[in-house]
Amino acid sequence: MINRLEVGPRMSEMAVHNGTIYLAGQVANDPTADIQSQTTQVLAAVDALLARVGSDKSKILMAQIFLPDLGDFAGMNEVWDAWVVPGQTPPRATVQAALAKPAWKIEVVVTAAV
To answer: Phi/psi of residue 79, each to 5°?
Structure first.
């Protein structure tokens, strides 16, 4: 069985199947903020979504990070490094990519275990 949460006409915010959680790309609520603040907002959204299905950041299986400007890599990593659980850091990819809204400085896609 697939359990989808916050289902919209175009996408769901999250799907859970066979003990695996798939999150849609998470972006900042305040796109006018700097990279550290946008990263903090995105990671808080990841925390909240995982908590809704009984999981947390220590159970992340893979993270994909999209940055339009690789000049933001260090600022993003500063927040990321403070957020991840020591000894439980997930595999991760960070790539440069244009995002749907030019003001977004980061988008994160996460797959996690329940």
So the answer is: -75, -45
CATH of the domain at 24: 3.30.1330.40
The C-alpha angle with vertex 28 and arms to 73 and 2, in degrees rounded to 5, equals 105
Report the alpha-carbon distance of residue 51 to residue 49 in Å, rounded. 5
Can you say whether the dihedral through the CA atoms of 23, 13, 66, 43 is positive or negative? negative
Question: Can you give the pTM of this predicted structure?
Answer: 0.95
Q: What is the block-wise mean pLDDT of the chain (114 residues), using blocks of 10 residues?
A: 95 97 98 97 98 98 98 98 97 98 97 98
- Domain of residue 13 covers 2-113
Helix residue ranges, H only, the chain: 35-52, 73-83
Q: What secondary structure letter does DSSP report for 70?
A: G
Task: Answer for the pair 38, 30: CB distance below 8 angstroms, yes or no.
Answer: yes
Number of folded domains in the chain?
1
